[in-house]
Amino acid sequence: MEWNWDHAFAVLPQLADGLVVTIQATIVASLLAYVLGLGIAILKMSKSKFTRISLYWVTEFVRRTPILVQLYVVFYVLPDFGIFLEAFTCGVIVLGIHFSTYTSEVFRAGIDNVPKGQWEAAKSLNYSPVQTWKNVILPQAIPPMIPPLANYLITMFKETPLLAAITVVELFRAADQYSNSHYTYLEPMTLVGIFFLIVSIPSAMLAMKLEKKFKQAKTA
Amino acid sequence: MNEVLNFYPILIKGTITTIQLTVLGAILALVISFIVGLARISKFKSVRVIAIIYLEFFRGSSALVQMFFIYFVLPMWGIYFDALTAGVVACGLNVGAYGSEVVRGAILAVGKEQHEASQALNYSVFKKYRYVIIPQAIPIMIPTFGNLLIELLKLTAVASLITISDLTFMAQIIRVQTALTLEPFLLILVIYFVIASILVKMVDLIAKKFNKGRNIMTAGDK
């Protein structure tokens, strides 16, 4: 099978459109994952044992089951209950929820790393819980979390092709559609792979730089 | 629900296929992890470069794309895999890339004095790694390998998209045949969860076994 440049050039515009959808999905899903993850992390520190244990099992259930099946559940089951969502919305919600269980661990570790004295200081200043979190804990906890959170952003980017299974025309499905109508897998699939590498390798290098930067800031 | 349970033969078949994919994929991933992880710390630059290219390639592109490439593109060059083999190879190569970082990290975490001790005993490089470094690195690897094993199990669901009849594929068949949606998918989610939980417990037991007799220095403090 020879590489055919005509196919390669013909599929490029569709891939570019797909890449835009892929990046949109990644950004929206990651925002959801960060917000939900922070919420889960704070709730997991709750005083109520019931909340902690039930939350533990819910997040473990999400973590130990495949994203693809979760996508099918939301995509096929919600319409039965009269909830009609666009495929893109479904995909973003599932990706966001799935990875919020991962980011919550990052947030929890970051919060645990804030010294106990800071909590006591906030208490002695008579801060309310909201003030404590907003002014004392989070500003100290967030910087060391940035590199692992950036890594999850890259992981989510690489998981977006799964949205193709629920009919979202992102990068991968754009290539698949072209392959199916022109009977050639070589060029579209190779180009998709290259597109992923072009985005994810520089991002991974950037994440590594961030890691170094925050490590230095800590020792300095 | 009863309607779905009537399909139990194909559900059992799907479960077996999923377990097969997971076990075979894990074995391949483990072998690759060690080969690539050790290659990363090789003395020869060319070996290190090849290992890095492999790592970046499989970590940088998506698993689904790799699976389609292996199943649909390689046959055009005369490399044929049946669907199950393609699934195992794709899962193994993908998770193996992540695993190689675990192996490398764990080996680098073994103290410098262990290298010096091996040198003092006049061990060859092979003997040093075989008897001194790797046995101490393995307990460090086990928890992260456990996480990767769960990721591998979840990855096998993606293999249903290249026509492998695993659990996810069977759930789709049941959905099409019964027009039920909630029940088949909920059922397989539970099956995946049970398999994953068993794997987590197994890894915990292995970790305990490897940690037995270690940390002699701290054991006395208790």
Summarize the structure in short.
The complex is a heterodimer of chains A (220) and B (222). Chain A has 220 residues and is an all-alpha fold.
Note the topology.
The complex is a heterodimer of chains A (220) and B (222).
Chain A lengths: L4 H40 L4 H15 L3 H11 L9 H26 L3 H9 L4 H31 L11 H12 L3 H34 L1
Helix pairs in contact in A: 1-4, 1-6, 1-7, 1-8, 2-4, 3-4, 4-6, 5-6, 6-8, 7-8
Chain B lengths: L1 H4 L2 H33 L4 H16 L2 H11 L9 H27 L2 H9 L4 H32 L10 H12 L3 H30 L4 H4 L3
Helix pairs in contact in B: 2-3, 2-5, 2-7, 2-8, 3-5, 4-5, 5-7, 6-7, 7-9
Q: Please give the number of β-strands of chain A.
A: 0
CATH superfamily of chain A: MetI-like
- The number of strands of chain B is 0
Spatial extent as radius of gyration of chain B? 21 Å
Distance between the termini of chain A: 57 Å
The helix/strand class of chain A is: mainly alpha
Compute the number of helices of chain A. Answer: 8
CATH architecture annotation of chain B: Orthogonal Bundle
CATH names the topology of chain B as MetI-like fold
> What is the number of independent domains of chain B?
1
Helix content of chain A: over 70%
Q: Which regions of chain B contain 5 or more consecutive residues with pLDDT less than 50?
A: 216-222
Which chains have the largest interface?
A-B, 37 and 40 residues
Give the % helix of chain B.
over 70%
Which strand-content bin applies to the residues of chain B?
under 5%
Total DSSP helices of chain B: 10
- Which sequence of SSEs, written as H and E, runs from N to C of chain A? HHHHHHHH
Strand content of chain A: under 5%
Task: Write up this protein.
The complex is a heterodimer of chains A (220) and B (222). Chain A has 220 residues and is an all-alpha fold. Chain A has one domain (5-219): MetI-like (MetI-like fold, Orthogonal Bundle). Helices cover 81% and strands 0% of the residues of chain A. In chain A, helix 1 (5-44) packs antiparallel against helix 6 (129-159) and helix 4 (87-112) packs across helix 6. Chain B has one domain: Orthogonal Bundle (MetI-like fold), CATH 1.10.3720.10. In chain B, 80% of the residues lie in helices and 0% in strands. Chain B has helices at 2-5, 8-40, 45-60, 63-73, 83-109, 112-120, 125-156, 167-178, 182-211, 216-219. The radius of gyration of chain B is 21 Å and the shape is flat. The A-B interface holds A 1, 60-61, 63-70, 72-73, 76-77, 80, 158-162, 164-165, 172, 176, 179, 185-186, 189-190, 192-193, 196-197, 200-201, 204 and B 56-57, 59-66, 68-69, 72-73, 76-77, 150, 153-158, 160-161, 168, 171-172, 175, 181-182, 185-186, 188-189, 192-193, 196-197, 200.
